[in-house]
Write a structure and sequence with these properties.
Layout: H1 39-42, H2 50-101
Length: 103
């Protein structure tokens, strides 16, 4: 089942396609060291104003609160489901015991 299957051509054509080979590159010129720009110099720095820092902190806090509320609600849903299943199991056990006693 997990073995690879190789397709077989029932009617071979006799045409052989050679593998593509890249041509050798011979016209590469060296780059002078003065033309290289450091990566750190090309990046711009981000400056936060006090207002944008407060907005960033507020949005981060809002995200934490929303994620926390979702996780707590999921935990409560699992807990309520577990309690419900346990209660149903106890009731069914009592009903089966009563049926076996013949009441």
């Amino acid at each position: 089942m997990l073995q690879p299957r190789i397709p077989v051509n029932p009617l071979p054509t006799g045409i052989v396609t050679p593998l593509a080979q890249p041509a050798p590159v011979t016209d590469i010129e060296p780059t002078p060291a003065s033309a290289l720009v450091p990566v750190a110099a090309a990046r711009t720095t981000v400056q936060l104003t006090p207002g944008s820092a407060v907005a960033l902190a507020a949005s981060g806090g809002a995200v934490v609160l929303v994620v926390g509320a979702v996780l707590v609600s999921m935990l409560l849903a699992v807990a309520i489901t577990g309690v419900s299943v346990a209660l149903i199991a106890v009731v069914l056990r009592l009903l089966v015991r009563d049926m076996q006693k013949g009441r």
